[in-house]
């Protein structure tokens, strides 16, 4: 009799839990306390429409390295997200065939408008991607984080007119509020009528437009210095672009502001990506 009683009691408790809060026994989802509830699967990039992928919910014991071994960098680039922003409770895109994202880039290998320039930078806001071109041929490309809604990155043709290896924001603080936000490997391309400067620079990439108008690139060295993670920085795109721009200077990368008379031409095109649900 006692065994039957325990079974009935257990079933009753289970039913109460289900009625009171079905999330306690359902499959895990984004944490209710997490205001972002990041789901990178709902961001539409045109270049991914012909690449089969599936959403993957990050479990507590999972990381990019555990899931994809040495291919984690390819998956991070595919999602426009850095190591620090992949956490349990979020969803990322995982290609069904990893070969589909080998050397992935949504930008053309040859860009006709860039043929007349020794160095030309193309930024596609819709794709959240930046490319470096030499006489029209793509030298390399990488993910970016442009201005979010309400702080859109200006569109049009510009020119890199200054660089500053150790630049720091004069407006925005780090997450802990203890210092101004670092903008390592900064390349300035525009100053608006109010005197606000726009730069391409190192920042953390959360997998979506996130800045106040500047263009951010991977730089895990900066994140290790500020946030102490990751322990072994791998993604160093901001440095690569900076050194490519600076390599022709008599004294490249002095660590202070350097003005450029004839820096690379920069074109910014496109609109913010479409979300399958309400914007973040």
Describe it for me?
This protein is of the alpha+beta class and 280 residues long. It has a domain at 112-272: L,D-transpeptidase catalytic domain-like. 18% of the residues lie in helices and 27% in strands. The chain has five helices and 14 strands. The protein has a five-stranded mixed β-sheet, with no helix packed on it. A five-stranded mixed β-sheet has the order 11-10-9-8-12. Strands 1-14 form a two-stranded antiparallel sheet. A hairpin with a 2-residue loop joins strand 5 and strand 6. The longest helix has 19 residues, at 2-20. It is globular. The protein starts with a helix and ends in a 5-residue tail after the last strand. The model is unreliable at 7-35 (pLDDT under 50).
From the structure above, extract its key features:
single chain, 280 residues, alpha+beta, L,D-transpeptidase catalytic domain-like, five-stranded mixed sheet, 14 strands, 18% helix
């Amino acid at each position: 009799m006692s065994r039957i009683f325990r079974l009935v009691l257990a079933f009753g408790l289970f039913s109460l839990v289900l009625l009171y809060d079905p999330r306690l026994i359902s499959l895990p989802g984004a944490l209710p306390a997490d205001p972002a509830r990041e789901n990178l699967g709902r961001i539409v990039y045109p270049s991914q429409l012909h690449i089969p992928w599936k959403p993957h919910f990050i479990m507590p014991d999972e990381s990019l390295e555990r899931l994809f071994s040495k291919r984690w960098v390819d998956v991070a680039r595919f999602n426009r997200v850095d190591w620090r922003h992949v956490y349990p409770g979020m969803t990322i895109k995982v290609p069904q065939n990893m070969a589909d994202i080998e050397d992935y880039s949504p930008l053309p290998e040859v860009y006709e408008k860039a043929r007349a320039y020794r160095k030309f930078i193309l930024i596609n806001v819709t794709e959240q991607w930046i490319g470096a071109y030499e006489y029209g041929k793509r030298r390399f490309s990488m993910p970016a984080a442009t201005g979010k809604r309400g702080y859109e990155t200006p569109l049009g043709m510009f020119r890199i007119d200054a660089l500053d290896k150790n630049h720091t924001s004069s407006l925005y603080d780090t997450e802990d509020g203890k210092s101004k936000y670092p903008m390592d490997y900064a390349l300035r391309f525009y100053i608006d009528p109010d005197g606000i400067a726009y730069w391409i620079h190192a920042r953390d990439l959360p997998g979506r437009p996130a800045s106040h108008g500047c263009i951010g690139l991977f730089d895990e060295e900066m994140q290790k210095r500020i946030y102490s993670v990751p322990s072994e920085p791998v993604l160093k795109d901001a440095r690569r672009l900076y050194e490519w721009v600076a390599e022709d200077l008599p004294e490249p990368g002095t660590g202070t502001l350097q003005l450029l008379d004839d820096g690379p031409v920069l074109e910014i095109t496109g609109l913010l990506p479409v979300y399958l649900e309400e914007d973040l």
